[in-house]
Specification:
Layout: H1 2-14, H2 21-32, H3 39-50, H4 56-82, H5 117-132, H6 134-154, H7 160-179, H8 182-196, H9 198-213, H10 217-235
Helix pairs in contact: 2-6, 3-5, 4-5, 4-7, 4-8, 5-6, 5-7, 8-9
Length: about 250
C-alpha cells in the first residue's frame, strides 16, 4: 500500500521532468539553495528570540525547538546509517525514473533514503514557529512541504514516505522536548550566559543560526567522511611489520 502510494506520487511528479529546462533548474535551485529552505525558519525564530527577553514562554519554545531539531536530525541520521538501506528513487534500477535537467545522478546515492533528515529538520523548525504564532506557523509548514520537501521528491532524492517519516520524527521530537523539563534547565543556563557574556553568547548564537540554516551540511558531510575513514581503517589489513635493523656494529 505504502509502496504503491510512493510510486504513484513519484510518477505524478516525475511526468513533468525534462519538459522545461527552466522549470527543472528553478526546482533544482530549491533543492540546493539553503536560503530558500531553512533560512526563513531561522529568521523567524531568531527574531522572536531577540525581541523576547521579557517573554520567557517564547524563549522556552524556541529553545525547545532547537533541541528538538537536533534530536530529530540525530534520530534520522542514525536511522539512515544503521537501519535498512533504501535506495533513492533516482538510484533504484527497478524504477523508470527520468532525471530532471541539472540533476546529479550520484548525489547522495550512497545514503539511505529513509527517513528524510531534511524533512525532519524543516518540519521541526516549522513546528517551533507554530508554537510561537499559529498563522505564521501554518505558513512555515506549507513552506516546508512545498519549497523543501516536494522538490526533493521531484528530483528523486526521496519517496513520499521518506518525507512523512522525517516529518513525523521532527514533530514528535519537538513535542517531546516541549513536554519535558529539559528545556527549562537549559534555558536557565542560557539566560546566565547571555547576561554575563553577551558577546560570547551572540557569537555562538550566530554560528548556531548558520549551521541550522545550512542543515548542518558541512558537519554531516564531515561526519560521514570520518565514519568512512574509520570504517576503512578498521577493515584495512595491517601492514607486514618491517624488519628491525640495528646500527653501530656488524654481525
Amino acid at each position: 500500500m505504502i509502496q504503491e502510494l510512493d510510486l504513484w506520487i513519484l510518477g505524478a511528479l516525475n511526468q513533468f521532468a525534462t519538459r522545461s529546462w527552466t522549470a527543472d533548474h528553478l526546482i533544482g535551485l530549491l533543492v540546493n539553495a539553503d536560503t530558500f529552505k531553512a533560512l526563513p525558519f531561522v529568521a523567524v525564530l531568531s527574531a522572536y528570540w531577540l525581541v523576547g527577553p521579557d517573554r520567557p514562554a517564547d524563549r522556552r519554545n524556541i529553545l525547545s525547538t532547537l533541541i528538538g531539531a537536533f534530536l530529530a536530525m540525530g534520530i534520522s541520521r542514525v536511522w539512515q546509517n544503521l537501519g535498512p538501506m533504501r535506495a533513492r528513487p533516482r538510484s533504484d534500477s527497478s524504477i523508470d525514473f527520468v532525471l530532471p535537467h541539472g540533476a546529479d545522478h550520484d548525489l547522495l546515492a550512497s545514503w539511505s533514503s529513509f527517513p528524510s533528515d531534511t524533512a525532519a529538520l524543516s518540519v521541526a523548525l516549522a513546528a517551533g514557529v507554530f508554537l510561537l504564532n499559529r498563522r505564521v506557523g501554518i505558513a512555515a509548514l506549507v513552506w516546508a512541504l512545498v519549497v523543501v520537501c516536494i522538490p526533493r521528491i521531484y528530483f528523486g532524492l526521496h519517496f513520499a514516505s521518506d518525507i512523512l517519516g522525517g516529518a513525523t520524527i521532527g514533530i514528535l521530537s519537538v513535542w517531546l522536548v516541549v513536554r519535558s523539563r529539559f528545556a527549562d534547565w537549559i534555558l536557565r543556563g542560557v539566560n546566565v550566559v547571555e547576561a554575563r557574556w553577551p558577546v560570547l553568547f551572540y557569537a555562538c548564537f550566530m554560528i548556531l543560526a548558520f549551521q541550522v540554516s545550512t542543515y548542518f551540511l558541512d558537519l554531516r558531510v564531515t561526519g560521514a567522511k570520518l565514519a568512512h575513514v574509520v570504517s576503512y581503517q578498521m577493515s584495512e589489513p595491517s601492514p607486514e611489520p618491517e624488519a628491525e635493523f640495528k646500527t653501530g656494529t656488524l654481525p
